[in-house]
């Protein structure tokens, strides 16, 4: 609600500004009819008259300025008016309030990102595993060839160097994939944490799933979690010594092993999972 003092200041300001405008118009007509008509009808004509005939126009101008200042003072005397002005300034500076920042992602958005990131992680893990099987055999083959090389056989040495360079490139690629896996896993963990905070599950129970990269049932369980928007923490027991220790402490003999709160489920059964979540 607008305060009485604000209304008084606004009323005085409007009246004073109006009087100032009349005084300037009268001064213009006293100068000449042309100046009066210019001030009255031509856009910014009053500013031109003010500049050219400052001595005659200043009384009206200063009176109008005083009225404007009274109006501004009346507005700032009222908290609601100040808030409205601040919001208007915010809109002019950066659009409507809240437009500068994107809305927080929903559980569904995060689930879609998690599914994409998990697919990327699984592809990297599969490539890492394939190369991990190939590289030792390639190294042994190269070592056998190296031992048979003759210093005089320059062609064989050149071919060996080419194959050794290719092996080194694959080895570096293998290390690069390991680094990518670490990076993607960290991003996936962050997304899972974000979804955990955004999710509003029926009972809010923490879900931990012990998995391996080669477990088909684990893939099925993870896909189900993603589709249902269920937040969970994944621990690959083959990649985490601490995870393997916790898995064994729980008596785990096969994966997936899923903890829902303090309840344990071996293998994956959607109906049993939903029952444990209640």
The coarse overall form would be elongated
> What distance separates the N and C termini?
49 Å
Count of discrete alpha- or pi-helical segments spanning 4 or more residues: 10
- Percent range for β-strand residues: 5-15%
How do the helices and strands line up, and which of them pair or pack?
Blueprint: H1 4-31, H2 33-41, H3 45-52, H4 54-76, H5 79-94, H6 107-148, H7 154-198, E1 207-211, H8 216-228, E2 233-236, H9 241-249, E3 257-260, E4 263-266, H10 270-277
Parallel strand pairs: 1-2
Antiparallel strand pairs: 1-3, 3-4
Characterization of the model:
- This protein is α+β, with helices and mostly antiparallel strands and 278 residues long.
- It is 72% helix and 6% strand.
- It has a 4-stranded mixed β-sheet, sandwiched between helices.
- Helix 8 (216-228) links the parallel strand 1 and strand 2.
- Helix 1 (4-31) runs antiparallel to helix 2 (33-41), helix 3 (45-52) crosses helix 4 and helix 6 runs antiparallel to helix 8.
- It is elongated.
- Residues 93-101 have low confidence and may be disordered.
């Amino acid at each position: 609600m607008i305060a009485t003092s604000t209304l008084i200041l606004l009323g005085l300001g409007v009246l004073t500004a109006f009087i100032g405008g009349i005084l300037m118009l009268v001064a213009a007509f006293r100068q000449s009819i042309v100046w009066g008509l210019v001030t009255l009808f031509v856009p910014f004509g009053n500013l031109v008259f003010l500049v050219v005939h400052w001595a005659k126009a200043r009384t009206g101008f200063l009176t109008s300025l005083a009225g404007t200042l009274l109006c501004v003072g009346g507005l700032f005397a009222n908290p609601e008016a100040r808030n409205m002005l601040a919001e208007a300034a915010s809109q002019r500076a950066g659009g409507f309030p809240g437009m500068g920042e994107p809305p927080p992602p929903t559980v569904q958005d995060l689930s879609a990102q998690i599914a994409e990131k998990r697919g990327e992680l699984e592809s990297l893990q599969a490539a890492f595993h394939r190369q991990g099987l190939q590289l030792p055999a390639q190294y042994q083959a190269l070592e056998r060839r190296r031992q048979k090389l003759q210093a005089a056989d320059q062609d064989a040495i050149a071919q060996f160097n080419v194959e050794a360079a290719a092996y080194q490139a694959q080895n570096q690629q293998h290390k690069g994939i390991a680094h990518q896996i670490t990076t993607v896993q960290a991003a996936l963990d962050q997304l899972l944490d974000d979804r955990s905070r955004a999710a509003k599950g029926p009972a809010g129970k923490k879900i931990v799933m012990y998995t391996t990269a080669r477990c088909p049932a684990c893939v099925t369980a993870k896909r189900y979690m993603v589709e249902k928007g269920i937040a969970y923490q994944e621990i690959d027991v083959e990649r985490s010594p601490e995870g393997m220790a916790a898995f064994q402490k729980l008596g785990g003999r096969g994966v997936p092993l899923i903890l829902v709160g303090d309840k344990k489920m071996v293998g994956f059964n959607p109906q049993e999972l939903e029952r444990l979540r209640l």
